[in-house]
């Protein structure tokens, strides 16, 4: 078993609370992604699991064992760093074997394990090269190989692809996902890139300022965001947010009236205003009940789609449209009410 459990884990730096009581259960063999903007605490959580950061309070369990006072080398984890952290004077073979040598594993077993890992990661022809002779993607595979060869209970990865170019990042995230399927081991992966999170994770943890905002599958994070932060963070371009006033039978956002159903009226009861969310890719519907006439500010042509930026009642919005959609100075957009999200204007929490 290699489940990882955090119980009310907190971290303070010089009196400042950076991790504010995280509770999280990571399942055995799961690929879990921690995602959020820089400074949200995701790397700190990873380092606390590894034992590289002391926790201020709370409990951490790995494989059912409490590890608060267990040193990093005894936690049976492997850490893959953003910087690769390869030894420049060692060959690929020596870099991969280093951890095993430190544990005084017999040379015959080391040679066998290194060959197996090299075969798995397509490194067999590079074993005698030094890191300076490798590309960025090859160095990352060596860093992965050094972690894999130890056969740990848990892999911890801190933005391992951030130093690669866009094309190589796509290739490497596919390789890492395949690697997880082969190894059948628990992976905890940190990234600030929502595309990486959505394409790689079995579940995603969205963090903001040391607080977990939502934990769910990529599909549910996208379709059922818990609040405006999650809704705005996941999706590219991000969700549009429009303030709206509530009347007895309808919502009014900047002169556009949206009739409320009986259920909507019940949920909106005693609320004065809400934030209405609509994803850019949901802003064109031929038979949509809501009709918006907007003035176009800018158009980005991306080949397979157009991103149209416009102002609506003083609020900045955008729509993701088909490349064949004709765009002039002004356009008509139609919206299906079922694609709208409603959030509390004060708390940001999802109403429905």
How would you sum up this structure, described in words?
This protein has 352 residues and is of the alpha+beta class. 26% of the residues lie in helices and 34% in strands. The protein has helices spanning 42-50, 92-102, 107-120, 136-148, 166-183, 194-200, 218-223, 228-233, 262-268; strands at 4-13, 16-26, 31-35, 57-62, 65-66, 77-80, 154-158, 186-191, 203-208, 211-216, 240-246, 250-253, 256-259, 273-278, 290-301, 306-312, 315-321, 330-335, 341-344. The longest helix has 18 residues, at 166-183. The radius of gyration is 24 Å and the shape is elongated. The model has no long low-confidence stretch (mean pLDDT 88).
Estimated helix fraction: 25-40%
Unreliable segments (pLDDT under 50, ≥5 consecutive)?
A: none
- Mean pLDDT across all amino acids: 88
What is the string of helix and strand elements?
EEEHEEEHHHEHEHEEHHEEEHEEEEEE
Our estimate of the beta-strand percent is 25-35%
Counted beta strands: 19
What structural class do the secondary elements suggest? alpha+beta
Dominant shape? elongated
Number of helices: 9
Describe the strand arrangement of the main beta sheet, using strand numbers. Answer: 6-7-8-3-9-10
